[in-house]
What does this fold into?
Amino acid sequence: MIRLKTLGLAAFMAAVAVLPAAAASGHDNKTPERQSWSFAGPFGTFDRAQLQRGFRVFREVCSNCHSAKLLSFRNLAQPGGPEFSEAQVKALAAEYKIQDGPGEDGKMFERPGRPADRFPSTYANPEAAKATLGAVPPDMSVLAKARTYSRGFPLFLVDPFIQYQEHGVDYIYSLLALGYSNDKDPNYNDFMPGNRIAMANPLSDGQVEYTDGTPETAKQYAKDVAAYLMWMAEPKLEERKKTGFKVMAFLLLFAGLLYFTKKRVWAAAH
Ligand code: HEC
It folds into this structure.
């Protein structure tokens, strides 16, 4: 019996020792750098100014190739997001031409965008994008949640407890700001699986104008656009965290009440 137990333990220890090695082999990707984000942790909230800057970067740079099919203009004015004013969103939407129809003559026509319209894509379909760009640029609506990376054993066991939920944004930030490390090869990236990426570095210093005095550097753009992508992927993040706090507070209170109820109910027993 004892021999069996020790054998089992030895096998388990051996398996544990092999696990990280197995996870690390097969690619020479770097692990994304963990950043500090305003929306991390149980009380996290988005930084409105950062989301507004991030939208600027998304709109002026990324949306030339990437779509964001789940985004409607009006979302940009909703609580918990960049919170542009209704008037700003109306003016922004009107800058775009949206196909509508058919009209009374049976033909499709173009009209200025309205807040209820979806954010238009540059390419009509993924095939058209691939034909021009060499690869399909993934839709950005939920990209920050769809991308992740393995932190390996034992960190993945710890993450739920330390409330680390920013793997996706950390990956996106690292890919953009730190990953293009080979000057001679624009398609090399330290963080892309397999290290090959069809997208050359889309960001450079001074490319997007900021009106709030924030430094106009490629790194800052990467940070802001990553935060913006997080909001697009989880527009109700703030609400979720607030609800979570209320639930925990309630459960704590309820546990206390139950404890005293139990004491009372059983007090007469002896
Ligand atoms: C010139 C077109 C172009 C622009 C501009 C562009 N991208 Fe891309 N992007 C692509 C293509 C194409 C891919 C697919 C790459 C591949 O599969 O190798 C891609 C892939 C990505 C990926 C996915 C990597 C992965 O894990 O699959 C991320 C993240 C990304 N882009 C972010 C951005 C951000 C943020 C911006 C704006 C700052 C941006 N891109 C601007 C074309 C572009």
Q: What stands out?
A: The chain has nine helices and two strands. The radius of gyration is 25 Å. Residues 237-270 form one domain.
